[in-house]
Design brief:
Shape: globular
Structural class: mainly beta
Strand content: over 45%
Radius of gyration: 24 Å
Largest sheet: 6 strands, antiparallel
Order of helices and strands: HEEEEEEEEEEEEEEEEEEEEEEEEEEE
């Protein structure tokens, strides 16, 4: 006779079988394939007209990656023209400036959260006079507010507003408690005044102002700076965990530009050289990316005058805190739109692609869409909904 099994042994046996089944199921399931829904942000202009000289608008469409279907989520009102756009990937928010006349300063500021696009808030700026700029500020705990800089009756003023429950209201908190994030646009349009021009003085990073306002951070060791005679530096990423500066070239014989990295938690500076003297770098979800670009022949480095950068068909990827970089060939008229974990979304001309980043290269490249509207897409983000 087979000996009876105790109730405890029977229960343990069932748990073991259940665990084995779940393990097998996990092995059979496909790996993460990135965002299921990608939000595509288009700067749309009339056909055959240069976007620099005409009215344009912003359209946000949801794109179902698996089915390839598009659905409109949000757009600027018809009577508003696009002025500029800033995408803050870590704060998961868009700031979009608009006006009735594209040559005016912004009259409306739309605050668009990634996870509730339809609940975008609108801030009326018309009564503030000439708006010079706006930016997103954030505390280490994640609280955010918008700062608007404007000129009224020959006086430069700042107004801070907080975002709570989808509404924009006057802020009672001091802006000094907040960190100014850097949310530039792309090399195509928008957001350039959100970049911070700075200089390095005796190892200290200072803003280029009359009083040389210091930027936070310990002094930069002189030994790590390669471009000591740089015309200046641009802070293109400013996050609770790090600050990133790129050099402004002062000589035509350089073939790269320097990237200075400040690790805030560890209070340490490091440096890297990235290819392309005119490569425009962006901080995107923990990555630094940029289409590698060179200055055109005949650039005047004294007067800082030259033509459009000469774009290569490669994009540089940098993990700044890991001191790791690599370049990937993706073709002409290309742009990195979004990175989700190890999945990258990019466009080449009128084609939208998805790929996996692996061993310093792209694998599993997949064409998601081929359409002329793809050439209008300059930003993207994923939503949790």
């Amino acid at each position: 006779m087979t000996p009876s099994v105790s109730k405890l042994d029977s229960l343990l046996w069932r748990f073991w079988l259940k665990g084995l089944a779940l393990t097998c199921l996990a092995l059979l399931l496909p790996r993460s394939t990135g965002a299921q829904t990608l939000c595509l942000v288009r700067n749309h202009t009339p056909d055959g007209v240069d976007s620099r000289y005409s009215r344009s608008t912003i359209l946000i469409d949801s794109f179902a990656v698996y089915s390839g279907t598009l659905a409109r989520m949000w757009s600027l009102p018809e009577n508003q023209c696009f002025i500029d756009l800033k995408l803050y990937s870590s704060a998961r928010i868009l700031l979009i400036g608009a006006a009735r006349n594209p040559y005016n300063s912004a009259e409306k500021l739309y605050v668009v959260p990634f996870d509730s696009v339809s609940a975008a808030s609108c801030l009326d700026l018309k009564d503030l006079g000439t708006v010079w700029g706006y930016r997103y500020l954030q505390t280490p705990s994640g609280m955010g507010q918008v700062e608007v800089e404007y000129r009224l009756q020959n006086e430069t003023l700042r107004k801070t507003l907080c975002i709570a429950a989808g509404q924009v209201v006057d802020s009672l908190a001091s802006a000094a408690e907040y960190l100014r994030l850097a949310g530039p646009g792309t090399r195509f349009s928008g957001g350039q005044e959100d970049l911070i021009s700075v200089a390095v003085d005796s190892g200290r990073v200072v803003r280029v102002t009359r009083d040389s306002t210091p930027v936070d951070g310990v002094p930069i060791p002189d030994s790590i700076i390669h471009r000591k005679t740089s015309y200046g530096w641009i802070v293109f990423a400013n996050e609770p965990a790090l600050m990133l500066l790129e050099s402004v070239a002062e000589r035509g014989d350089y073939t790269d530009r320097e990237l200075l990295i400040y690790d805030r938690p560890h209070k340490m500076w490091s440096s890297m050289l990235v290819p392309g003297i005119s490569t425009s770098l962006r901080f995107l979800n923990g990555w630094v990316v940029g289409v590698i670009a060179d200055d055109p022949p005949g650039t005047d480095y004294v007067k800082r005058h030259g033509g459009e950068p000469v774009l290569r068909e490669e994009v540089v990827f940098v993990r700044p805190l890991e001191q790791r970089q690599f370049a990937v060939h993706i073709g002409p008229k290309s742009e990195i739109l979004w990175i989700e974990a190890d999945i990258v979304y990019y466009r080449t001309g009128e084609e939208l692609y998805q790929a996996r980043i692996k061993n310093c290269d792209f694998t599993e490249r997949k064409l998601l869409m081929r359409h002329r509207l793809v050439s209008d897409i300059h930003w993207a983000f994923s939503t949790s909904r």
